[in-house]
FixH family protein
Amino acid sequence: MGRNIFLLCACFFFFTACGTPPPAPEEELTQQQQTIGDLTIAFEGVAVPRINTSQQFVITLTDETGQPRDGADVYIDMTMPAMPMGINRPIAEPEGEGRYVAYSAYTMEGDWEMIVVVRLGDDEYRAVFPVVAVE
């Protein structure tokens, strides 16, 4: 009896170890940028984002001379043009050196528009970045 339990446990641990998936490779990032007036807005995120998975978005702001722009209010208006959904507007927190970070998730696969809204003083800038989310 003891030998059978031992063999059963050994088989269980063997098959459990064999069935463990390998660690996921680091996800590839992509960066897009647009210049609007005197401000360049760069948007960085996962190249092929998965739905219902927390995503980090990095927005970098620079002026016409390439210097970082701090002191802005930044948020992302995540929209899906083909399927209007509820409001999803993650606010980006400043990290210094013109860098702002926000987190959210895509809730459906398909074509998304990430509308980065930047308020600097009395000026408002909007840049639209296309993203395709997969299941």
About this structure: The two ends are 47 Å apart (CA to CA). DSSP finds one helix and eight strands in the chain. Residues 2-18 form the longest helix (17 residues). Residues 67 and 118 are 16 Å apart (CA to CA).
